[in-house]
Amino acid sequence: MAKAVVSFAVERLGDELIRQGKFLAGVGGQVKQMQTELKLMQSFLKDADKRQDDDETVRV
């Protein structure tokens, strides 16, 4: 009886670990994509800040 309970628990734990691993693998790609987008935004804002004094449309 105890062997069956332990076996069941190990199987469920293994399934959960696999599920969590797949989730975390997907999150890694999303984090990279967000980092790239934030860097692009940062570059855009730096450029806009530099142009602010020269171009009136940027000030608006």
UniProtKB/TrEMBL annotation:
<keyword id="KW-0547">Nucleotide-binding</keyword>
<dbReference type="InterPro" id="IPR041118">
    <property type="entry name" value="Rx_N"/>
</dbReference>
<dbReference type="GO" id="GO:0000166">
    <property type="term" value="F:nucleotide binding"/>
</dbReference>
<dbReference type="GO" id="GO:0006952">
    <property type="term" value="P:defense response"/>
</dbReference>
<dbReference type="InterPro" id="IPR038005">
    <property type="entry name" value="RX-like_CC"/>
</dbReference>
<keyword id="KW-0611">Plant defense</keyword>
<feature type="domain" description="Disease resistance N-terminal">
    <location>
        <begin position="5"/>
        <end position="59"/>
    </location>
</feature>
<protein>
    <recommendedName>
        <fullName>Disease resistance N-terminal domain-containing protein</fullName>
    </recommendedName>
</protein>
<dbReference type="Pfam" id="PF18052">
    <property type="entry name" value="Rx_N"/>
</dbReference>
<keyword id="KW-0677">Repeat</keyword>
